[in-house]
């Protein structure tokens, strides 16, 4: 039995004033900072964004300046990755392709998160027939395979020269998954006691929605947004590969991969570089999504 | 073996499972317990958990206790004191990263603390059983109850046709008779049961037994002779008690009691645990059971392999008090008759004292006090135990008188004298008239009446407690008083005005005067809001003051609930349950309300913290003349805080009176049952509480 001296009585329920104050976000940040997955993906993403913003820093070549005499030329000084079939500098095309892929990914994600969470939040918060109607619409979109739908829609806009058509198509078929997640997040937050408490304090339903429910539902939405950013980049590449994505004049990894596929057996390196760039970018975002998920939802931590 | 020996055996053996078990005298039991030595001996146990950062967290730093065969030992402590961890270490079932780093655990003299998981498997179930805490989540919803009992029997290779005797009951029998024949422990099988009863009737008739006596004997046999639970020598013994000759009785018992099947045994176990109609129940699924029934099924599983030690981890804390009493009474009877020792983990000192012979008090991972129950209660040595004894509401209800000894500072302590003057004054602040609320249940046509014609009055400056078990409709009443739910019929008057008419501005005004404090201290504060923002929110909504004056008000409120200013910048996840509940009270007080509706506001808190919050509520009432509508399931708490009591059952008002009336002179059986079920309520305490603080 421990003697009295060994277990001094503490003041009942005293506050530990020495501990630093942490909100959920500060806590998440602390977890993130220590996660190697986050550090690696963070560095990669910062680098990728830098490349997308300032491609000129990395190459002086013009990706669209192609001369057939360089066709399939080997790597040489100033042209580290060599030349493709059209005689364009592969390195320059990979560098400039970053901007396209990243802007498609980020723009699609922003639109998807905005509309998806809005519809989801309204459905979850209102309930009743509003929820029923919105949920059925979501179900209908869910039933359409994203790529198949995108192919059909993009066929109609073959002539358009803008990356926006791809962004909008990706958003059109992507918002539903965010809407579902947002709806369930709002549903589970809606019934928590602090909302009842807030109502009893006199706040209106709308105030509850914007001040309490949505901020508390953000975490899963952020997680899915980070993870799906990578998948939008892949989808864009896929569409460009199929020849119905970005206009041929735009430098994009998907388009380059498509052009290089015939050279797989003779000059695999032409295919290799844009593919690796794509893979690294997507991997970085998916790793980031995983790290964010671990930080925001400690329950789902794997190890 | 002679028959007379068997008769003797039945007299002294504690091995019977029937309700009229004949238990060895306390002295004999005690002697045997000491002779056999401790069944479980934990010494200087240390358990660490590893945190995310790899740091060791010392959950248990110094825990020592022993459990003797057939003894009930209770470990008492608040959440986080290491009581469950100590017990789970004995079973080798430490969760997550927990591991034993020091000390020893001896089972039957054998050191088990360093065992590998494989070795633990051998003793779990067969030597040590577990009754887990939460009956709702500890049964697998996809398997039938019977299958889950069977799992335990099969896993331990139990012989389902013979009873297994604990060493203790064998030893007790051995003191007067030699070891019984194995065959005498054979269970009745359901197949032979009708023939057995027939033969028994015939034998009784032969002895000249007839009429009412015969009827009674047969009725007794039918209820007592449960297939898969009663054994051969019990049958013979019963027959002999009704006058059948020894030889005939043994002839019948041997002929017709030939062993039970797995199904019989499962049903037998469930009926031992107190489930009626066990054979049918065994084929049902967990969702068809109430919480109490599930806990009984878990007890059946825990005892299925006749362990010598049963570890019961807060087995009834999720259940209503009346159910808790029934289940513990039954478990007591069962373990006494089987000679099973019980390590009983609880946060409730009153419950521990009432149920266990020996109490171990844990605080911050250490055992601070250990001793015979009454000894610990009446002469607590450690200041923590003293504090615990003083604060335990179930015990407090017995010592209202002691308040007077405190003289001047009586208002500062929580014992509350019923304020008759205020109750008699005709100053009603909330008037509930014939309140009824019906809910539509899914897939049901008829409406469910959650609240049925309830009327009461809350007088200004007093506390009215609504008491009832889960499902009694008490929270629904609270929500209607808060205008968070609209009543189906009847009305709630606030200060003479019907609250149903409040809209817009008048509703906002009503909100300002009537505030809630909810049960769950973890759910009622927005986790994204800092404490400052949480408390400031009502001021913000009602547009009171400017930024500066609001900040000043928040400081004032924090001071009122005795929290340091530094918590303002913190978030709810950093505070304990009691601190959050104080924040919730501060938020409710921000608008200077007249009425606070406390919906189970202290139920989730540890005893000492609960005591502290109740004191705070009481002080606030005294200072500001607040009126409380206090919803609780805990009658012990009611005694400490309420002036008026409303008892509800199944949505109806059962009893209504002042606290003194209800406690001293309950009118309805239901109220009496509730009062009876307060754990430790009947314990005599001669504690000197002068040094309570």
TrEMBL record, chain A:
Gene Ontology BP terms: transmembrane transport
Chief location bin: membrane
SUPFAM superfamilies hit by this protein: MetI-like
UniProtKB keywords: Cell membrane, Membrane, Transmembrane, Transmembrane helix, Transport
One Gene Ontology cellular component annotation held by this UniProt entry: plasma membrane
Residue span, ABC transmembrane type-1 domain: 98-289
Entry's transmembrane regions: 37-58, 106-130, 137-157, 163-182, 213-234, 271-292
Membrane-protein topology: Multi-pass membrane protein
Pfam families to which the protein is assigned, alphabetical: BPD_transp_1, OppC_N
Key word Transferase present: no
Keyword Nucleus: no
Subcellular location: Cell membrane
Alphabetized PANTHER family for the sequence: ABC TRANSPORTER PERMEASE PROTEIN, OLIGOPEPTIDE TRANSPORT SYSTEM PERMEASE PROTEIN APPC
UniProt family annotation: Belongs to the binding-protein-dependent transport system permease family.
Name this polypeptide is given: Glutathione ABC transporter, permease
UniProtKB/TrEMBL annotation, chain B:
InterPro entries in alphabetical order: AAA+_ATPase, ABC_transp_ATP-bind, ABC_transporter-like_ATP-bd, ABC_transporter-like_CS, Oligopep_ABC_C, P-loop_NTPase
Low complexity biased stretches: 9-22
Keyword set, alphabetical order: ATP-binding, Hydrolase, Nucleotide-binding, Transport
Annotated stretches, region: Disordered: 1-22
Gene3D superfamilies: P-loop containing nucleotide triphosphate hydrolases
Assigned EC number: 3.6.3.24
Domain ABC transporter, first and last residues per copy: 40-389, 430-675
Name the record gives this protein: Glutathione ABC transporter, ATP-binding protein
Species this chain originates from: Bifidobacterium magnum
Top enzyme class: hydrolase
Family the UniProt entry places it in: Belongs to the ABC transporter superfamily.
Domain of life: Bacteria
BP term (GO), one: peptide transport
GO MF annotation, one: ATP hydrolysis activity
Lineage: Bacteria, Bacillati, Actinomycetota, Actinomycetes, Bifidobacteriales
